[in-house]
Amino acid sequence: MIKKIVFITTHNWDSKRQGGFHKFAEAACLSGIESVFFSFPRPYYGLFMNREQLNKDVIKTLSKGKYYDVQLPKTNEEQTDIFDEKASDFYVQGGKEKSKKLLNITYPTFRFPDSAGRFLNDKLMNWLLIHSFKSFKKFCKKYFSGTDCFVFESCEGIAFIDKLKKYFPDAKMIYRPSDPMVYATVPQRVKKLEKNILYKADLSLIVNEEGVNCYKKTITDFENKVHYEILSNGIDIASYTKKYPVPQILQKPNTVLYVGAWEVEWKLLFLAAETNPDFNYIVVCPNYPSSAIQKKVCQFKNLFYVPGIKPQEVPAWITNCNVVMVPYQTDFYKDRPLGITAKYYQAMAAQKPIVAYCDTPKLKDAGISVNYSYEDFISEIQSAMTKGSCTYKFDLQGRNWNEICKRFIKACEKNHEN
Q1: Which three-class secondary structure state does DSSP give residue 21?
Q2: Closest CA to 195 of 220, 224, 229, 163
Q3: Could you give the angle at which helices 20-30 and 401-417 cross, rounded to 10 degrees?
Q4: Is position 309 within any domain?
Q5: Following CA atoms 293, 298, 304, 306 in sequence, which dihedral angle do they give, to the nearest 10 degrees?
Q6: How far is the C-alpha of 204 from the C-alpha of 177, rounded, in Å?
Q7: In Å, how far from its chain's centre is CA 161?
Q8: What is the DSSP letter of 328?
Q9: Residues 131, 110: contact at Cβ < 8 Å?
Q10: pLDDT of residue 93
Q11: Which domain holds residue 217?
C-alpha cells in the first residue's frame, strides 16, 4: 500500500492553472496518502519576474515549503464517492469536516531560458536545470524520505528521474504526460528527456490515443519498450449543471467566452469583434499576451482580456456565457495531439454552443463546430448565438473526475505491488 506520493509538476498548488495533477494529488491526500506537490522548474531568474508561477514571493515561500488544507466537502456526494469507505475517515462526529495536509515545495535552480540553448549545449543546459546552491540529495532526504511513488507531469521535472531512481531504488516512477512534449516549440534536449522517462518509468499514463500515436511516430518500438495505459482527463460534471451568480463581465449581452491556458488567435478575434459589434468576446487566460496585443484589445468596446480566474470560478463563467469559443492559433492542432480536451467537456456538460478554430477534426464527431478559416469561425459564432442549450454525441460519464481519480490511485497501487 502506498503511504507517500510525490507529484512533480509545473503547477503551484495555489494556482489559476488547475489541472489533472491537482485532482490526483487531492484524491491521494484525501485517501490517506501523504502527498507532496513538487513545483518545478522555478529558476533563480524567476525571482526578478512577476508571473503567477515565477515571482519572488512564490519562489521564496515554496522554497521553504507551504502546507495546504485539502478538504472533502460534506455536501458534495459526487466527491465522496471517489473514496468509498475511506471517505468517512475525513469526517468527525456531528458532521464537521476534517482536512488533510498537502505540502507544496520547490527547488530553485540555475536553469537558463530556452533561448540560451542557441549558445549552450544540451549537457550544460540540463546541468543548469537540475543544479542549485542547495544539495538536491539533502533536499530529497528532507522532503521525499519514505516516498513510495513519484508521479511526473510532462514538464522539465522529468530530468530528475535518474537521480530519484538512484536515491529511492524501491520507489515506483510514473509518468503522466498531460501534454506530450512532441510539438515543434519544445527544445530537442527536452524531447530527449521525455524519451528517457518513457523508457525508464514503471508506468506511463497517457491521456488518449492521439498521445499514444504521436509517441509511436517518434519512439522506436514504442509498444515493446514503454509500459503504458490510457487514462483520460476528467471533469466535475455536477459543477457545470448548477446555477451561479453571473460574473460582472458576463452580464453583457451576447457573450462569447474562452477560458484556457493556450494562446488564442488574436487576429481572428479582432476581426470577429469588428464584424459583430453586438457580440462581446471575452478571453480568460493566465498567459499574458504581448503588450501590443493588450494595447489593441483596449481599442475595442466588445473585446476583453482577463488574466486568469481561480479554478473554482470556472463553472460560474462557463455556465453564464452564451457561447463557448476555443480559438486556438492557426494550425495549433497539427502540432499538438491533445484530442478532445477537458475544455470541451466543461462546455458540453453545461450544454453550451461551442465553436472551435484550428483544433482536432474529431470534434465534428461529437457535434462540435470546428472551423479552419476566419470566415467560417465568425459565421458559426453568429449561428451559435441563436441557439439555446445544446446536447452532444459524447459520453461524459466515464470522464467524471471521481472515476478518473479512482483509476489513477488503483493504477498507482497496482504498480506499487508489482
Answers
A1: helix
A2: 220
A3: 70
A4: yes
A5: 70
A6: 8
A7: 21
A8: B
A9: yes
A10: 27
A11: 4-234+400-417
How far, in Å, CA of 357 to CA of 268, rounded? Answer: 9
Q: Distance between alpha carbon 121 and the CA centroid of its chain, in Å?
A: 30
Strands 99-106 and 280-284 come out as unpaired
- Coil/strand/helix, residue 143: helix
Residue 392 lies in a domain: no
The whole-angstrom separation of Cα 202 and Cα 117 is 30
| pTM strictly above 0.85 | yes
| pLDDT value at residue 87 | 38
At 53-109, the pLDDT tens digits run: 899 999 999 999 999 999 875 444 444 444 443 433 332 223 344 579 999 999 999
Q: What is the DSSP string of 358-375?
A: S--GGGGGGT-EEESSHH
Q: Has residue 389 been placed in a domain?
A: no
Rounded Cα–Cα distance for residues 316 and 255 (Å): 14
Give the cell for residue 321: 456565457
pLDDT tens digit string along 296-351?
A: 999 999 999 999 899 899 999 999 999 999 999 998 888 776 789 999 999 999 99
Question: How far are the Cα atoms of 50, 91, 276 from residue 236, in angstroms, in the given order?
Answer: 31, 22, 33
Q: Which amino acid is at 76?
A: N
Is residue 303 in a domain? yes
Answer whether 230's CB lies under 8 Å from 206's CB.
Answer: yes
Provide the domain count of the chain. Answer: 2
141 CA to centre of own chain: 28
Q: What proportion of the chain, given as a percentage, has pLDDT over 70?
A: 93
Which residue reads 529511492 in cell numbers?
A: 168
Cα four-point dihedral sign 264, 268, 269, 270: positive
What distance in Å separates the CA atoms of residue 118 and residue 122, rounded to the nearest whole number? 10
Tens-digit pLDDT profile for residues 153-194: 999 999 999 999 999 999 999 999 988 998 888 999 999 999
Is 103 within 8 Å of 36 (Cβ atoms)? yes
The CATH number given to whatever domain includes residue 275 is 3.40.50.2000
- Mapping DSSP to helix (H, G, I), strand (E, B) and coil, where does residue 69 land? strand
CB 52 within 8 A of CB 15: yes
How many whole angstroms separate alpha carbon 157 and alpha carbon 114? 15
